[in-house]
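Take a careful look at the protein record below. Let me know whether the structure tokens fit the sequence:
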Amino acid sequence: MEEKIFIVEDDAAIFSSLKEHLEQWSFQVAGPENFQDIMTPFTQFNPQLVIMDIQLPAYDGFHWCREIRAVSNVPIIFLSSRDHPMDIVMAMNMGGDDYIQKPFHTDVLLAKIQATLRRAYSYAEPEEPMDELKWNGTTIDLKRCVIQGGTQEIELTKNEFFILSILVEANDEIVSRDDLIRKLWDDERFVNDNTLTVNVTRLRQKLSELGLGEAIVTKKGMGYMAVTLQENT
């Protein structure tokens, strides 16, 4: 089945160029005609990945990312002609999975798309099939990308879920930042190190809702470790 990519880009020349290039790689590509309404065509197309420009008519890409995140965990790659570090931080905090600055080479974007699709849809196929992990009195559902504690259920993004799974499966051992980056993004050349920090911060914020905000520990100069809290032993 062809994977579907939804491109939110108001520059017709850039949209047409991307559409033509991606269709050569057997992707189905669509985009909105009316930038006042992104959600209707997004929902109808039901894509596996979104490419989102930041500077758009009416509402910016951050707004539409929030709208999409309210209903979907589909991977989102941001595009922007701006190079301020805070744009990258905002993109990741809003739920973006990657960020690429204009002008860009289409082969670089393609590599990011392929890596994002692999980590979003392929990693949850372990060699020995498992449905869940038990950790600190919670259940990590490997099929639905959620963590449950009692009657409360927290939904995680693909990146947050993957990071948590790696750390928990390490059994109280430190996982280096480099190892996490390699496992998340496959090729370090296409990764901004800040992306990992932002994803871990978001993960901790969500875990705090279950009283586990301190269960992901930073080991300075080494990496991260998922620990067993005393109250849950």
Remarks:
- The chain is about 40% helix and 20% strand.
- The helical segments are 12-23, 39-45, 61-69, 85-93, 106-121, 158-169, 177-185, 193-207.
- Residues 106-121 form the longest helix (16 residues).
